[in-house]
Amino acid sequence: MKERIVFTNGCFDLIHPGHIDLLKRAKALGTKLIVGINSDKSVKAIKGEGRPILSEKDRAEILMSLEMVDEVRIFDEPTPEKLIREINPDVLVKGGDWQIDEIIGADFVLERGGKVYSLPLREGYSSSLIIEKISNMLRQAQVNNGESKSILDRSLDEHIETLRLLREQKNKIEACAETIFQALLKGKKILLCGNGGSAADAQHIAAELMGRFEKDRKALSAIALTTDTSVLTALSNDYGFETVFERQVEGLAHEGDVLVGISTSGNSKNVILAVMKARQKGCKTIALTGKNGKKLASLCDEAILVPSSKTSRIQEAHITIGHIWCEIIEEKLSQKDERP
Fold first, then answer.
1. Is the peptide bond before 52 cis (omega within 30 degrees of 0)?
2. Is the N or C terminus of the chain more exposed, i.e. has fewer CB atoms within 10 Å?
3. Percent of the chain scored above 70 by pLDDT?
4. What's the CA gap between 70 and 80, in Å, rounded?
């Protein structure tokens, strides 16, 4: 019988019955199952500080002990695109939380006559939810041992703690600022998108770049894809709301531009489709999301995951990051102008 290679990928940190169920069903679609796992560096990039819980070596060892897994490959990049092209699988599998048009490598596999499946997940299991449950239990124990706080005190404490933890991503924040700065130096533009409060953040950051943050300087090319009501309503009416940013990226973006996708959950479909289109067009992609925003983070070249699962705290951190980017960019521009 001809070998039929099935490929799937993930962090697998921590492995639970939902993973086992998915891997069994994936193996049934072929004769050999290869599992790609994110390296420790890659997991940290897409899931934030404190992850992974288990090292890449431990995760690979656990997976290789499973009867249905034939091979484990570790990859360093945010996505397995390079690995998928190298393996050239007959079947590509992801869990049901990924739609076909969101799966990295799907176009490559389909073009070569392969199959791509989004298999329903076994309900009630998630590594991130397990870790979050343990964290909540620890936090609740601390609350039970202390005095209750007012809403104001609790909110300010959460805000301060979130920003304190955000400092651990200093290098990522500065790297994203450098990506944006280098694109602007080359005459490229910055596109930003998001929904609700994230739409407001997209507009806020674009306005700071186009106008000024704290220093007088030339206007910088930045466009929020959330402002043109005629475009937004036409695209929503004719193509569906999920396409409102993707279609604008298709029309406005050029190779070397930067798309900043903002989503507190990391699951906003219209932002994810915009990122997928930006990747196709050769743009750099940056994600601003929360601690559970793995999906969006894993699709982008760079990602900042605010260490909170509370929408308000995430949004407060996002605009702080936007302001820091603007300040860094203005400082770099002023230093460039002062050089002889």
1. yes
2. C
3. 96
4. 18
